[in-house]
Write a structure and sequence with these properties.
By secondary structure, the protein is α/β, with parallel strands linked by helices. Helices cover 47% and strands 14% of the residues. Helix 2 crosses helix 3 and helix 4 packs parallel to helix 5. The structure holds adenosine monophosphate.
């Protein structure tokens, strides 16, 4: 199965990506994670990435394409993958389309998780994650048992640098300007599957599984 996941910052994309990929036994390829890993190493490329992510701007297409194509070429992608946060622009979607064609590996669908803009900031700003095991929480909607500590391993939870309200608003604006056109891009290719992303992760998961059984519109 090869799936593209679309959704604004705070739409629950990462949570659903991990769940779908686990059930389908395919890797999740998150360009956001790849970019954060590069930033953590302190490399020259990481420094370039940080200049964009800190202000909520998209990283230029050529840099993103270089890291995702390297990842797609790995062996674990042979039986499928779920793309979380890629593509985010029309040129990225066209580059992916070329890669898929060259590899004889068509997409099954592009899943779009819809959440109104008014709910996104609260959802993103309250997010916390465990730096040890990657598990995710929300201070209001999915709090840990002990405030600030991971339920699984007890590590101190952290907040992403770009989950501050002003940066989230900039990220939503970038999405509306540059990523939203992908909805029509995938609709025109009859690959789009739309899902309502309002509700608990469990409710949204049930809707996604149902929608993915049906053919895209
Ligand atoms: P995410 O974890 O998907 O929310 O991505 C975090 C940040 O990484 C974004 O705000 C962008 O600055 C950058 N980023 C992630 N994926 C892409 C992409 N496909 N194109 C451009 N920038 C990206």
């Amino acid at each position: 199965m090869r799936v593209v996941l679309l959704g604004k910052p705070g739409s629950g994309k990462g949570t659903q990506a991990r769940r779908i990929a686990k059930n389908a036994n395919i890797p999740t390829l998150s360009t956001g994670d790849l970019i954060r890993q590069a930033i953590k190493t302190g490399s020259e490329l990481g420094k370039q990435f940080r200049a964009y992510t800190d202000k909520g701007a998209l990283v230029p297409d050529d840099l993103v394409l270089a890291i995702i194509e390297e990842r797609l070429d790995k062996d674990d992608c042979k039986n499928g993958f779920l793309l979380d946060g890629f593509p985010r622009t029309i040129p990225q979607a066209e580059a992916l389309e070329r890669w898929l064609k060259e590899h004889g590996a068509p997409l099954d669908c592009a899943l779009n998780i819809n959440v109104p803009d008014s709910a996104l900031v609260e959802r993103a700003v309250g997010r916390r994650f465990c730096p040890q095991d990657g598990s995710s929480y929300h201070v209001k909607f999915a709090p840990p048992q002990v405030e600030g500590l991971c339920d699984q391993c007890g590590a101190a939870l952290e907040q992403r640098n770009d989950d501050r309200a002003d940066v989230v608003m900039a990220r939503v604006e970038e999405y509306n300007n540059k990523t939203a056109p992908l909805v029509n891009f995938y609709k025109s290719r009859r690959l789009l599957v739309e899902v309502d992303g309002v509700g608990t992760p469990k409710d949204v998961g049930v809707r996604i599984d149902k929608a993915m059984e049906c053919s895209p519109t």
